Amino acid sequence: MRDAGRMTAKRVLILGGTEFVGHAFVDEAVARGHDVTVFNRGTRPPRPDVTTVAGDRTAPGALDALGSDSWDLVVDTWSWGPKAVTDAAALLSRRAEKYVYVSSRSVHTYPSAPYAGEDAPVVEASADDTDYSDYARAKRGGELGALAGFGDRALLLRAGLIIGPRENIGRLPWWLNRIARGGAVVAPGPADAAIQYVDARDLAAFGLDTAAAGPLNVVSPPDVTTMRDLLEACVAVTDSDAELRWFTPARLEAAGVEPWTELPVWIPPGADSDGMHRGDVSRALAAGLVIRPLRETVADTWEWLRSIGGVAPQRPDRVPVGLPVEKENALLRDGL
Ligand SMILES: NC(=O)c1ccc[n+]([C@@H]2O[C@H](COP(=O)([O-])OP(=O)(O)OC[C@H]3O[C@@H](n4cnc5c(N)ncnc54)[C@H](OP(=O)(O)O)[C@@H]3O)[C@@H](O)[C@H]2O)c1
Question: Cβ(40) to ligand 1 under 6 A?
């Protein structure tokens, strides 16, 4: 663990903490010797090394179960109706030093300019909304709720694509499983298109350690990592005989392939890809963000995936990802 020995132990409350990103926060916090409490409904077995408080935070008064404790840091991974963030931040504003809300770069209005920073326009949203059908508004509403309670003591981590062990969306797991199967693989071009991502563990380390506050884009630097890097790392760590066949965006579009969901991570060049894969992260880098090598993220995710039998957990409120076999076969049969 980088820097773990130099950390001062903190009292950390993690709202959530048992699936993917929250779980990474718990692991990183425990590794730093922090005193960790998690609050969730307890649908997964409690960990012996953290204090678990059970409750449904959408129910009135549920957070009262936390008693009168105070914390150095609250971490909130909520991704549904923002009112739950607003209520928690209001309740804890005098009992915690800082509120770390896991937000998203999706809060920006469309289309996003290339190399947009944190000051780019954001969508209209309400902190009191219980609706979460519009992801951008839900995340922006959560930011407003965190800011209402904590002001300049709120840190808004605007993540982009999050990958790493325990991923419960299935993007990197799908590529790993597909490439491990071997043979000709439809690879979405252009191969040198840049991508941005963050390993959940690096996001968590940054969120726990940084002294920064306010909104920060938290992904890898732009124009460094490419789609080819990602897929070749998958070939290498799975020790596969897969042969990547690079298809043009026009060819994939003509075949009706959905970017992002059917071929995860991939977005054809344009405004959508500028929004997801070409953001400015200079503030986060200056505030201490460290992105581990891509190969390490991919290898650790493969190791984890194999350890659970190759079937990645799937968030029920997200669309399952991956290219249907018949679509892939048709593309390979008809050629580039
Ligand atoms: N994946 C990406 O690429 C991406 C990109 C940008 C941003 N993000 C953001 O990253 C975050 C992902 O977080 P995660 O889901 O992995 O976090 P997590 O903290 O690991 O898991 C969600 C937690 O919420 C708890 N929970 C759910 N409903 C609850 C309720 N009603 N009351 C109390 N607790 C409840 C769950 O436990 P129980 O079920 O036991 O209650 C679980 O512990 C989200 O904010 C998402 O918007 C993701």
Answer: yes
